[in-house]
Design brief:
- The protein folds into two domains: 125 residues, Thrombin, subunit H, CATH 2.40.10; 143 residues, tm1086 (SG structure) domain (tm1086 (SG structure) fold, 3-layer Sandwich), CATH 2.102.30.
- The strands form four sheets. It has a six-stranded antiparallel barrel. Strands 9, 12, 13, 14, 15 and 16 form a six-stranded mixed β-sheet that branches. A three-stranded mixed β-sheet has the order 10-11-17, with no helix packed on it.
- It contains two helices and 17 strands.
- The protein is 5% helix and 26% strand.
- By secondary structure, the chain is mainly beta.
């Protein structure tokens, strides 16, 4: 891993910017204090971001999602890489007791995500929900015992289209499958001013760039976007998600569990939910696939899986030629997306 370099400071939101929270503080809150969601407009209402730092104002779209119920066939078992059957507990639905910042190997589970998976019963609407929803978008529960609870999109899954939304633990525990949830979708097609044209930005709310300390725009003569990551992974470890559209799928990484501290090399850095991870030689502009000399950066959105070809999954947010990205390997010092950043403690 390379030696970490200091990241240039990200510009502060302009006065009145929709990513400003109470008392002008940048944060993923709407105009009303304590409400989750980085894109806000007048009087706490979500809306499009200001013209700066973006040259064109993206539109927001109100979407309807339904909290998913896990599904199994009459043969409930899956088979791991060693031929052993197992039950895929945690794959979809509402997963309790799992948080951003937990190890992707911490639980005996399959593709477990920290929150609720959202879908739509109509296939076309389900795909639209998965494509348009972006990390950082505001979510609000509309029906059921948790009606009124607010959360934030933290990623998406493939397998017919799922959106992962995080909530405060008590509100997540009150939710049930079939609860209706609205998503204020914004972000696809947006790009910050100053980002190199060769770099594609996807799956992330524009307001998030103001609150992510690990991402810094180009500064001075250096035209690269600087990104701090937990680690870099070679494309040979990319699994499920290859060949699939990056705007609606995640990319599974076939990572081994981290070595213990007693290992000769001191142990590998453990990957945590919410971490930023770079994957070399992967082009995620459209359908994800191999392209030599490219780098894709994603946020870890679900945990490990015993299934061959699967593993912890990332939702891609940046992809482009390696020369337009300054990847800083932060290892154990890395701090990824957290509940604190999203005001979900």
């Amino acid at each position: 891993m390379s030696t970490p370099s200091a990241a240039p400071a990200a510009p502060a939101p302009a006065p009145g910017s929709p990513v400003s929270g109470p008392a002008g503080q940048a944060g993923p809150v709407s105009g009303t204090a304590g409400q989750a969601g980085p894109v806000s407009g007048t009087a706490g209402q979500a809306g499009p971001v200001s013209a700066k730092p973006f040259s064109a104002r993206p539109v927001s779209v109100n979407l309807l999602g339904v909290v998913e119920h896990p599904e199994l066939g009459d043969g409930p078992y899956r088979v791991d890489a060693d031929g052993r059957p197992y039950l895929p507990v945690g794959d979809g639905g509402i997963v309790l007791g799992l948080q951003l910042g937990d190890s992707v190997f911490a639980r005996s589970a399959d593709h477990a995500a920290p929150g609720a998976c959202l879908m739509h019963p109509d296939p076309a609407a389900r795909h639209a929900l998965a494509v348009y929803s972006c990390i950082g978008n505001q979510v609000k529960v509309r029906t059921g015992r948790a009606a009124g609870a607010r959360g934030v999109v933290i990623g998406k899954r493939g397998e017919a289209g799922r959106v992962i939304a995080a909530f405060r633990p008590a509100e997540l525990a009150a939710m049930r499958p079939s609860d209706e949830v609205s998503v204020r979708a914004c972000g696809q097609g947006s790009r910050p001013d100053g980002f190199p044209p060769e770099l594609t930005v996807l799956n992330i709310d524009p307001g998030m760039f103001a609150i992510l300390p690990m991402v810094a725009p180009p500064s001075g003569a250096d035209h690269r976007v600087s990104v701090g990551v937990r680690c870099s992974v070679p494309s040979k470890l990319a699994g499920n998600g290859l060949g699939r559209p990056a705007v609606s799928w995640d990319l599974d990484l076939q990572l081994p569990p981290p070595a213990p501290p007693s290992a000769p090399d001191g142990g590998a850095p453990g990957v945590l939910l919410g971490d930023f991870v770079a994957v070399t030689d992967i082009d995620a502009r459209y359908n994800m696939g191999y392209r030599k000399g490219w780098v894709t950066v994603g946020i870890v959105v679900h945990g490990a899986s015993p299934l061959p070809g699967h593993g912890p999954g990332i939702t891609p947010i940046l992809t482009g030629p390696a020369q337009v990205l300054d990847i800083r390997h932060e290892a154990a010092r890395h701090v990824g997306l957290t509940a604190s950043m999203l005001k979900l403690q």
